[in-house]
Amino acid sequence: MNIDLSRRGFLRLAGAGVAATSLGAMGFGEAEAAEAAQVRAFKLATTTEARNTCPYCSVACGIILYSKGDVSAGETAELLHIEGDADHPTNRGTLCPKGAALKDFVHAPSRLTHPRIRKPGSDRFEEITWDEALDKIARALKDDRDANFIATNDAGVPVNRWTTTGFLAASATTNETAWLTYKTVRSMGIVGFDNQARV
Amino acid sequence: MTNSWTDIKNTDLVIVMGGNAAEAHPCGFKWVTEAKAHRGAKLIVVDPRYTRTASVADYYAPIRPGSDIAFLMGVIRWCIENDKVQWDYVRNYTNASFLVREDFGWSDGLFTGYDEEKRDFNKESWDYQKGDDGFVLTDPTLQDPRCVWNMLKAHVDVYTPEFVENITGTPRDKFLTVCQMIGECSAPDRTMTSMYALGWTQHSKGAQNIRGMAMLQLILGNIGVRGGGMNALRGHSNIQGLTDIGLMSNLIPGYLNIPTEKETDWQTYLSTRTFTPLRPGQTSYWQNYPKFMVSFLKAMWGDAATAENDWAYEYLPKLDVPAYDLLRMVELMNHDKVNLYFCQGFNPLLSAPDRGKVTRGLSRLKMLVVMDPLATETAHFWENHGAHNDVDPAQIQTEVLELPTTCFAEDEGALVNSGRWLQWHWPGATPPGEAKHDTWIMAQIWLRVRELYRQEGGAFPDPILNLAWNYADPGEPMPEELAREMNGRALADLTDPATGATVLRAGQQVSSFGQLRDDGTTMAGCWIYAGSWTEDGNMMARRDNSDPDDVGMFLNWSFAWPANRRILYNRASADLEGNPWDPSRPLISWNGERWQGYDVPDIPPTAPPGEVGPFIMNQEGVSRLFSRGLMRDGPFPTHMEPFESPMANVFNARMRGNPVARMFETDAARLGTSDEFPFVATSYRLTEHFHYWTKHNPVNAALQPEFFVEISEELAAERGITKGGRVRVWSKRGEVWAKAVVTKRIRPMTCGGKPVHVVGIPLHWGFMGSARKGWGPNSLTPFVGDANVDTPEFKAFLVNIEPAAEEPVA
Asked: Which ipTM was obtained for this model?
């Protein structure tokens, strides 16, 4: 099947058509309207849909995100519901106990919302601005690289490696994040570079 | 995966060994159910535990953790002895007929060339005999005693059913039943698929476990065919992508390599990567290495990479050790040789082995930067959580920065599933609070570093100052811009050398890696992704789920690397004449002029059958039953015990673990023996949780709220442990407290004449999030990894267990 219109989209359009024609045809306009006012609208009908994939295992099940607000239109969007994507060849709409609870992962109470710093010897995190945090990190990188960069080995061969700073990348990020991370980490000569594929 | 999730429906026999797909990959496992229901396929599970995958299997056999190679070599021996071999495939598509050097051999559990002091082999003898023409000598009759087939027969001869039973604990009758079921798939019209995961990789000889099954699949003729293959189920959602893009110490995107310091210049680097064919007329596709490498260097450094400066080869770091992997970095931290460490969505406090050593290492850093959507244990490693994280913050001088990132629901881009499908996804939510995209964070850090170098100068600033950074908003490169860079584009007008016709105009996206050049006229960040974002647009975003004749290929859904191919080595699905081995299950075939069918052919489309071998990436043109010196621990898999084992290696009692696995001095002293730690432990996942993430989700935390360990009724009786009672489990390196689940799902085995008890340790608890506080298995596991890739040995180690007081003792 070559679907231009998703199954859900089709059902929604079909449902709207039936409602519109039956109201007029039956001649009970007023009563029907009163009845319709009492029926709660389909909860997801007013949401924006986005196609995504489950972030957990590498089966990569297709999922549909339902949000109030449209991110692609630059609006603030609040995630209301996640379900399996029936059009997806692998999972055909099904989800496992992890995927079925995904919305509550996005809204987990321990999601981070502000940059924080824990100072040496301290027993707590304190909030810090992004600019302060990024400046601090850049300064630390520059100083450590300048102090410990190995330009040549004992034989005088250029080796351009930096071993005193390391970077663990995330194998749940996108390819695009991975490529940008690769470029920046490698350009500095960092060799202590790894991701979860190792473990 | 060589194949894909949806292809599993095409199989006749599924063997799950080294994995537990029903629980860890539930929606992918649906395709096993599909094959069982609609094809009459059978399912075999070989596992130390009677898992949920085992519960729906047609046949289950137990196995001692860490003894898989003995099992697999035993199956190969049985297949050879009982003539369960796909002979046409073995003769023509493997190196069975290649002659091996006279000085190669094996004795006392070791191949020739072992150097005990260096813990390494001199691999010179692990090679073929070559003729004066430079090509390998072969004996197509397979009579020569030095041909790979006869060497393999001799190598597996010791693995009799009796020997296998003694080592693996698998009862002989069960082992033989499994052999018979597998042997049936040697028929050209029957296929078996192998589904494995970390149950095979997390061993000190993990790569050899997988090779063992790959060899068996070749002997059965099951590679390249529908319903066959070696299918790594893989862990995280983009673990395939991160590996493809080479985010590892020694990798360059597309499985190219970071040079070693012995490769002092560009020509030396290329000289070991010429990949000339070892047999006449073979493709040896890696001959194109320079095209991919130059295109990568152009993607990195743009106009600063020129023919005159060898494409900025000097800018690349050169390694003095095989890799600065996670384990080596933790070791270096413990020696005060690391100052700054970044964890981008990685929680090493719970995922690296020997947690005590990780804590000590992190405590010696100057700065730790954690980028994550969640409050991880690693970011809080300095915080006291009683017995669950018994540290004194005042003693830890590490400065920690915790940066909030977006998660999948707020991100756009591609993830690569285990079937190599690059699937684009779109955001549906606004990031919470001040959380930022990783791309923004990386760009912001890097721009600041570049600015400091511009202002102050410093150590070799050239690779930083010259890094290509042509983004509309330099402060936040867009996913589309980055994806287009990885795909690659022409930097000048490209003409076809044969016809002179223009192939691509300067600036146009390449449509395949065949268009990449080694003269600086193309760039591509990751050559295997060429074709993913072409002049026709984003191929990864394609959502046409049509599947002609229901073969399970879905060629117009997303994009699969390489070249949108869904089954690797698919030329091997057809016989020497180009006809499908199984006419009822065709994949591609030769129509007299070209290869055509349901998949993108894995061979030049007009290469006539019978000339070019199906394994075009190999210098041999065929697959390898004997892998020469390509792996550190042997050209054939040989039985090795885990570093912590209840029994000595029967080949060589002096040999501990993998004889060439890297072992740091202080860690060797932290290995336990079976006198003190009599029980074998193994780690695993539960279906309700994903690693250390879902304990942050109140729903999953409620489904599986509390850390437990799983033991047999026999072990419980022996140690006086009650169902649901609290136990203490300890190893040479640490201790944990848990609820005891006493179960029939784990049974004692008999190995070397002694009973072996297994303790199962699930891995989902820590001291952050919504679930009850607990521990992970890494509080107990040894700091040693696989000899080839240093994946830690989480799946077989020694512990002791005893009943404990109700509350944990600090």
From this structure: 0.98
Structure tokens at B746: 């784990």
* Whether residue B105 has pLDDT greater than 50: yes
Residues near B340 by beta carbon (within 8 Å), at least 6 away in sequence: A140, A141, A144, A164, A165, A166, B365, B366, B367, B368, B369
- Count how many residues are written for chain B: 810
Q: Do B438 and A175 touch (CB under 8 A)?
A: no
Instruction: State residue A4's pLDDT score.
Output: 46
What separation in angstroms does the CA of B705 have from each of A95, B371, B709, B782?
A: 21, 26, 13, 27
The mean pLDDT value for B447-474 works out to 98
On chain A, the residues whose CB falls within 8 A of the CB of B554 are: 89
For tokens 């019978």, what's the residue? B610
Testing the interface with A: which of B204, B340, B784 to mutate, by most A Cβ within 10 A?
B340
Closest CA to B545 of B2, B3, B6: B6
- Half-sphere CA count of B801, side-chain side, radius 13 A: 31
Q: Say how many CA atoms lie within 13 Å of B126 toward its Cβ.
A: 22
Give residue B711's Cα distance to chain centre.
Answer: 29
Q: How high is the pLDDT of residue A39?
A: 77
Computed over every residue of chain B, the mean pLDDT equals: 97
Q: Is the dihedral of CA B498, B499, B500, B504 positive or negative?
A: negative
pLDDT band of B744, cuts 50, 70, 90:
very high
Strand-strand pairing, B399-404 and B367-372: parallel
Nearest CA in chain B to A105: B697
Kindly state the tokens that stand for B548. 């002609």
Residue of A nearest to B32 (CA): A90
Contact B444 A134 (CB under 8 A): yes
Regarding beta strands A62-68 and A78-84, do their DSSP bridges make them parallel or antiparallel, or are they unpaired?
Answer: antiparallel
**CA distance, residue B326 to nearest chain A CA (Å):** 6
Task: Specify which residues B494 forms β-bridges with.
Answer: B504
Beta carbons of A163 and A191 less than 8 angstroms apart: yes
Q: What's the pLDDT score for residue A27?
A: 57
Inspect the interface and report whether the beta carbons of A167 and B452 lie closer than 8 Å.
Answer: no
What amino acid occupies position B324?
A: Y
Q: CA A68 to CA B650: how far, in whole Å?
A: 65
Cβ-based contacts of B445 with chain A (< 8 Å): 134, 137-138, 141, 184
Chain A, nearest residue to B236 by Cα:
A57
Residue B654 to residue B366: CA distance in whole angstroms:
42
One-letter identity of residue A20: A
Structure tokens at B487: 């795909």
Give the nearest partner residue to A170 out of B24, B344, B700, using CB atoms.
B344
As a whole number, mean pLDDT of residues B216-222 equals: 98
Please tell me the distance from the alpha carbon of residue B623 to that of residue B661, in angstroms, as a whole number: 26
pLDDT digits (tens, 9 = 90+) for B688-724: 999 999 999 999 999 999 999 999 999 999 999 999 9
| Residue spans of chain A under pLDDT 70 | 1-29
Tell me the pLDDT tens digit for each residue of B71-85.
999 999 999 999 999
Question: How many Cα atoms occupy the beta-carbon half-sphere of B137 within 13 Å?
Answer: 13
Q: d(Cα B358, Cα B334) in Å, to the nearest integer? A: 8
Q: What is the full DSSP assignment across B568-624? A: TTGGGGB-TTS-BSSTTS--EEE-SSSEEESS--SS-TT--TTTS-SBTTSTTBSB-
Residue with tokens 């608890």: B765
* Cα B499 from Cα B518, distance rounded (Å): 19
pLDDT of B683 > 80? The answer is yes
Q: Rounded to an integer, what distance in angstroms lies between the CA atom of residue B535 and that of residue B532?
A: 10
Beta partners for residue A117, in sequence order: A126, B401
Q: What's the pLDDT at B807?
A: 62
